[in-house]
Amino acid sequence: MAPKIIVVGGGLAGLAAVIKIAEAGGSVDLFSIVPVKRSHSVCAQGGINAAKNLKGEGDTTDKHFDDTIYGGDFLANQTPVKAMCEAAPAIIDLLDRMGVPFNRTPEGLLDFRRFGGTLYNRTAFAGATTGQQLLYALDEQVRRHESDGKVKKYEGWEFLSAVIDSKGVARGITALDLRTMELRSFPADAVILATGGTGALFGKSTNSVICTGSAQSAVFQQGVYFGNGEFIQVHPTCIPGEDKLRLMSESARGEGGRVWVPRAAGDARPVEQIPASERFYFLEEWYPKYGNLVPRDVATRAIHKVVYELGLGLDGQPMVYLDLTHIDRATLNRKLEGILEIYEKFVGVDPRDHPMKIFPGVHYTMGGLWVDFNQMTNIPGIFAAGECEYQYHGANRLGANSLVSCIFGGFRAGPNALNYAKSLPASEGDGGHAAELARQAEINAKLLNNKGTENPFRLWRELGATMTEHATVIRYNKGLKQADEKVVELLDRYKNVNLSDRSQWANTSFAFARQLKNMLELSRVVAQGALLRDESRGAHYKPDFPDRNDERFLKTTKASFTGSAEGPRFEYEEVDTQFIKPRPRRYDATK
Amino acid sequence: MATRTVQFEIKRQASPDAPAIWENFELEWRPGMNVISAMMEIAANPVTADGRETTPITYDSNCLEEICGSCAMRINGKARMACSALVDNLEQPIRVEPLSKFPLVRDLQVDRSVLFDNLMAVKAWVPVDGTYDLGSGPRVFPQQQEASYPLSNCISCTCCMEVCPQFNLDTGFVGAATIAQVKLFNDHPTGKVFKEDRLRALAGDGGIQECGFAQNCVEVCPKNIPLTNAISDISRDVLLQKAKDFLRG
Prior knowledge:
The structure holds two protein chains of two kinds. Chain A is an alpha+beta fold.
């Protein structure tokens, strides 16, 4: 019988894994909270990196590798990153063959544009909805395998836990049907988690509603290491909103967009009356070589400095201009229409005529489940791919590297899980299914019958507020301690949680309350991991420790769950730096 | 200063068999507020306008930037995405109801899986030989890319099906979204290998002949997809295919 693999998550990484397994003759059960076509990968805008060198610039996969390692401040293990950069051109070709409507040159070849942290035109793109187009291409291929009976989808099911046998080997999962609220366990020879980022830890972010990190946290609490949890990317350009922070893609700057504020604080003149000499293009002045295309952590800190230290935010508000008005409308529509429409629809102003008002927002989780170079976690049979694992982006991800890392990771995890499954000995007894089901049923019953007073959605807002205040752009040890204490308080109040809805049909409060517990546990990994890392590296910045400290911290953080009041246990692992020797990371000077 | 508030009337139904009721909510106005942020507010404080405790509302949503296609519902009678429905642009009380053409799950949540079934029936994919490295894809000129890209922007929200007079259980009509995908794949240099299969799938009952050209679809589409053009083109191709198949016997 063909090995059975369970893939959890139907974004790019999950679908990529599914396709490889189906193609190799394996049988896949695919679990997703939402119909997979609605996964968060759909939100990626600007493009996907590959050194195809179609612009005659002499770009190479080695340069892509170097930019990625340097951009990540040398924290990523170099072997897998090198392999990813080398595989990227063929991944673009494959997506092209699958029908992704990439933008084209007049000769009918793939067009490329610039993105942050590189000096090369390395980013292939489909308008400004590249993630949507890539996700659809993989969704279509999975539907094809589904029609051939190789894939069975469980859409509308939420992963609750891994089933682990007496020898510590994964034997399947438990999941909840979000409609009928049925709890079930599903056997498998290997499980691949591809469950995305953790934006919800911060309340509002650019992430979709489902990006709670709940699945990662669940297996973390079952013994999987969490790597580099303290590394959270805050994207410099987002539209602040009531319900979320909407991303305004880096491609806006890749196509020539300029970030600025009036030089004089409180300058209330309309934009067109402010002459060029009175505009402060701070990224271009501070970083002449990369200009507006410095990496995201650098741009985000610059915006913070302009707003909070120099007091130059627009109208005294935490906002700066992102200006495209000097670019002609036809070009903007051809290359950026998707994101311009988002601004127009949600702000009510046409960014082709008026500069956009933007501010940084939590965007990407560089850390994640610890995996080896084969994408397997420390629990045999549990694999991870995509944003939910830690290994491709180090301390800061470069724009347009996420799509390639998701697909590459999925392409590796799928075949590796299948190979692993082929040599897996049969489980003893039921492989732990009955025990895990009973454990989950007990958690569910307790939650449903809890007679407390705390509303889970309000607890979540408090979590988001404290994490955003203390554990994002600028970090102080005092604040990080406060954040951890607040999370402990919330964990305590969670025991007193009260579901406003106790029904057994499409009960969203129930599902959310389960996610919230996992979010709280994972927040301690972020806050404490940041507290312990007394240096500044990539997205992790402490004014009290402004320099990178390779001697102490050129190391992967590995957090493990203890269940004790103190929180996770931390250990550190050497980073693989065998190809590129770490050097200072300075975007204001030549690399 | 009195707080400015926003009035909502939301249609509730606890399960497919339960009776439908309307609940009113009065929420504090906030700048940039949309229908989703209002429902998030209700979840954090599930109390009706007359002070009665209720349950958070069940609805589909995910990206909140009108690209995932989840949060389609009827707002003041119009099928649209709730995330981009800004409160300031809506007449109050804002009446929110589920889509009416799909099986109801609970409250504003409906089951739209029929669209994904339809996409499978018309083989809406490019049949690549495999995912191993076979070099670059076919050359595509910018004009072709610019024609395909809008069709490829379909977010599967099903608004076009909701407003179509012909889309219902009796006709079994596939709806505009699926027809537009047939055009997308039939125009693709490799995808066209299934062109005849796709056209035949649209030739029988529930196929393209059910379209009554009401043109509601193209008006309601949040992504401005040229749906009626796609339907015209594919209608012609289906007729030609029927004629060919007839002559071939």
